Structure formats: C-alpha cells, structure tokens
Amino acid sequence: MVDHMPCDDPRINSQVSREMNYYKEKALSETCEAAVQLRKAGKVVVKDSNLKDLGSTHFKYGVANEHFEVTKYALLETIKEAIPEMWSQEMKMAWGEAYDQLAAAIKAEMRQPS
C-alpha cells in the first residue's frame, strides 16, 4: 500500500517508513474486517472503544479527508496488484464500500480525546 502513496520525498526517514508499515497493515486489517461485516450484516460495526481510539488517533495526527482518499486509492491498488486474476469492478466497488463505511465511522469520532 505504501508503494502507492505519494511519499517520494527523500526527507522521509526510516522511522516514518516503519510507522507507515504499521499503519498500512492496520488499515488493511480494519478494512478486511469491515468487508466481512458488510457481507454478513450489511453494515460495518466497529466496537466503540476501537472506534474512539481510531478517531482520536487520527485527530491527534491531523488526518484530513484527503488522506482518507489517498489511503483508499492505495488500498484498492494494492489489492488489485496482489490478486489481479480475481480483480473486477464488482470487487473494487465492494472493497471501496467497506473502506468508505469504515472511514465514515472513524471520521465521526475524530475529535479531541476526553
């Protein structure tokens, strides 16, 4: 996923790279869970404690709406490259919907931790 993010700036150091790998894995894991929930229940449900934590962390780091869009693009491109023989417009729409619902839930909780 990081390969598809616009991080060509040579000033990005190894610490940022390590953090990005952690968040890359976290984003994929959370989106996978969202996709499973969407398929089974027709909606994405995130435990309140996880959601509040995700929201406050995104708020703390100044994540903006544009960042969610870049991450969505990177996620979809990564899945497409990982399983090209399975990739279809339907799969793209399903993964996109799962990500969009998860992102909406996170955005709703993006505020100063109490």
UniProtKB/TrEMBL annotation:
Is Ubl conjugation there in the keyword field? Answer: no
Keyword Heme on entry: yes
In its UniProt record, a GO molecular function of this protein is: metal ion binding
List each copy of the Globin domain by range.
1-111
- Tell me where in or outside the cell this protein is found: Cytoplasm; Nucleus
Q: What GO cellular component entries does it have?
A: cytoplasm; nucleus
Record's keyword terms, sorted: Cytoplasm, Heme, Iron, Metal-binding, Nucleus
List the Gene3D superfamilies.
Answer: Globins
Q: Which Pfam families match?
A: Globin
Q: Which family does it belong to?
A: Belongs to the plant globin family.
Fill in the subunit field for this protein: Homodimer.
Protein name as catalogued:
Non-symbiotic hemoglobin 1
Report the source organism. Forsythia ovata
Instruction: State the taxonomy lineage.
Output: Eukaryota, Viridiplantae, Streptophyta, Embryophyta, Tracheophyta
